[in-house]
Hints:
Layout: H1 15-32, E1 36-42, H2 47-53, E2 60-65, E3 72-76, H3 81-87, E4 92-95, H4 100-110, E5 118-122, H5 127-134, E6 138-141, H6 143-151, H7 155-178, H8 185-194, E7 202-210, E8 229-238, E9 241-242, E10 245-251, H9 257-276, H10 283-288, H11 291-295, E11 299-300, E12 305-307, E13 313-317, E14 337-340, E15 343-345, E16 352-354, E17 356-362, E18 365-368, E19 377-379
Parallel strand pairs: 1-5, 3-4, 5-6, 10-19
Antiparallel strand pairs: 1-2, 2-3, 7-8, 8-9, 8-10, 10-17, 11-15, 12-13, 12-14, 14-17, 15-16, 17-18
Amino acid sequence: MTTATSALPYPRFSDAEMARRRDALAAELEAAGAAHALLYGANRAGPAVAWLTRWPVTREALCVFTPGEPDLLLVNFYNHVPNAERIATEAEVRWAGPKPMATATRELERRGTRRGDRVGVIGPLGYRPYAALAEFAAPVPLDDAYTRLRLRKSAEELDWLRVGCGFTDEAVRAVHDQAGPGTDERELGNLAERAYVGRGGTTHIHYFGVGSSVPAQWPAARTLERGDVLTCEVSASYWDYTGQLLRTFTVGDEPAPLYRELHEVAEAAFDALFARVRPGVTAAELVEASAVIGDAGFTTRDDLVHGFVGGYLPPVLGDRTRTLEDLPDFGLGEGMAIVIQPNVVTPDESAGVQTGELVAVTANGAERLHRYERGLLRIG
């Protein structure tokens, strides 16, 4: 495995790690009764393509996967092909052409697929390319299978993830150290990005909220003022390996008693959940660990726990006061990565705080992947 400091132009997983992925996908294909898979992504969405080929999807990409044969990676735009060839070095890379699905189906036919054969499909395939594929073959959705494959991270994946978590920590540190009264909210994202972009990191999200129950997806055109309470949810990526860190800051002043109480409850909920994490723990047990929130008379707006890295993964859970869906029959497993993020708000949502971070599930319990200090912090 190469890391962020490697002399190679692009990082690479080991041959053994890539073989592990291909073998796992081949087993899912066999279980589905299909001989080939088509992985699809567009407009930077569709992480399965990068997981198998290392090419982060730009405009559009399709990967034809057949166990025992080299992958074919079809890329649009035409001018993106040379870069894809330098990154996806184990695959044959071609231009996808004006009708990418037609190009893919021609390759499936060349590999022995006959009209009506089952073909596994992974990714956000739109209705037009889906219809084009369905005219030739019988698409078999494998998104759930792919999600299962991404739940547990290998040792190499966890090493890459620690790099992404380090970038995320540095992004929050930049905001912590450099923001204060008078900082434009839009500048917060710029401060965060400058901490990791020059080191090979990319932005997954950086959300900030002032005077609201949760961080906002889009910054407001206003400046921070003394006495504000700022929440953040920041995720910087090392390729597809993304940290997530959530913190709350007071701006220039000590926190009001209500915010101090909200944060104490959020910290207690985080500690209760962190202590409960280990292989075999169920979704119901994690929700039960959040009882301190409701017992204190508060509630939540955001998810309490969710799986992460490779997608927004199971289990996705609210606390006992906010369960939007039936609890899944789901147990944690070693190698999973989950975000514990108690977002504690008043019942009328007039005030709220957020804390938490990404952790790994190990045989001995939860492992912190971030190194950022905890607590209700202060900027300015």
